[in-house]
Every structure is written in structure tokens, then in C-alpha cells.
Amino acid sequence: MHDTNHLTRAEVDFFVENGYLGPYAAMSPEEMAPIREAIDANVLGCAGPNPRRPMQSRHMDNGSVYDLAAHPAIIKRIAGLLGPDLVVWTTNFWLKEPGGAEIPWHQDINFWPIEPPVNISAWIAIDDVTVENACLRIIPGSHRQSLPHGRAPNEMAIAEMVDPAAYDEKRAVNMELKPGEFFLFSERLLHASSKNTSQKRRLGLSVRVTVPFVHIFQDSHLHPGHTAILASGKDVMGFNRYAGRP
Ligand SMILES: O=C(O)CCC(=O)C(=O)O
Known about the structure:
Layout: H1 9-18, E1 20-25, H2 29-42, H3 63-69, H4 72-82, E2 86-96, E3 103-106, E4 114-115, E5 120-125, E6 136-138, E7 149-151, E8 160-162, E9 173-175, E10 181-186, E11 191-193, E12 202-210, E13 215-216, H5 218-222, E14 229-232
Antiparallel strand pairs: 1-10, 2-12, 2-14, 3-11, 4-13, 5-10, 5-12, 6-9, 6-11, 7-8
The structure holds 2-oxoglutaric acid.
């Protein structure tokens, strides 16, 4: 039987060439609606496992977030790129209320506590995400090069960015997504999002997936007690700490 969650050779080639893939639907907007309600009630505005960053690691304390992070529509597709043994090493909500700040162009690996740098992220739309409420923007093919990052202006939502002379913003693609849709992207794909100038909130969840031979600097760089998810297959390396559904 054909499993629609596995990738075709053409999809694999597209990812290798462009550094991203999708969008795909993990679920319908109707199926996402009760999950959004649970996230609004039990995640946003509530303390989480990381005392410094309440939007991070909510797969550790919330079953709905764990289920999104380990969703077969995501994990099976990533298995088509990284193989069957897969580790969700972190999750992060990205909430942009009306007026929410710009996220400048960056490559995630510049910021991350993993070695070696192997990762595919899934960005899942919890809300309806359009150009109007500051969807993610990406530059196809930008993952083939690691770019230096410098200080970003204070009004931006992250502290470091790539020099605008290093890329051509005219090549940017807007990743508009319905609730429940997601796309995949490499740890080096250049991406950004504008200030939210609309009156509509924009909420998404990033799910970061790696493989068992990668060391995650859990206690020292994420937060004490951090646990990852062994989302598929097995870990014969034993470098990292896992927990099941909360
Ligand atoms: O949601 C955003 O605007 C930024 C997300 C992002 O930088 C990421 O998922 O790596």
C-alpha cells in the first residue's frame, strides 16, 4: 500500500536543491481548532519547563504539543530525508500578536546547541498564517552556504542576523499556511518574518528533528532537565535523554 507520508524521489531532490519542502497538511483547520484552544488555555501565558523561555520545550509538559511534535505526517516525511531513527530535540512556539516584532533573516544553526549540525525543522501553523499576519519567508537554495551573522537592531525579535548584502530578498518565497499545515526546512535555510502589521495573531510551532548520533547540549545550553522525544526508530548511541508523552 502506498503511504502518502513517505517522500517521492522528486520531493527528496527538491529538498536537496532548495532546502525546504511543502506545505503539507498534518490535519484540517477543523481538527486544529480544539488543539489551538488547548494551547491557548494551557500553554500560552503559563510557565513551562524552561524558566527563561516559556515558549520552548512545551512537548515536555503538554500532551497536545507532544502529539504535534511527534505527528506521523511530519516524522514519516523527515524519515524520507534523515532515515528511520529520529529525535525531536526541541520545540518552540512563535507567537506574533498584532504589532509583533520582525524576525530578521537568519540561519538557525548559527544559534543552536547541537553537534554535528544535522536538523530538519517543521514549522506548523496553529493559526491561519498569511502575508498579512507575517508568515515565514524563506530563500530557496540558501542552505548550501553558511553565512556569518552580526548584531540585529534592538527592535527585532532575535539578536543576530545575516548581512543583507549576502542574499537577494527578491528571491524570497512566502510560506502561507492554513491551520494544521506545515513545511520542512534545513538548519541552514535563510528565513525571516516581518512585523505583524495586521490585527490578527499569528501562532506557529517549530519542531526540530535530528538523529541519535547528534549530541544535544541539553542541561548546559537548553535547560536543566531537558528531555527530547525519540519520535521514530531506535537510539543505539545513548548520548541524549528522552521522555515519553506527558
Ligand atoms: O515564526 C517565525 O517568525 C520565526 C520562526 C523561526 O525562525 C524558526 O522556526 O526557526
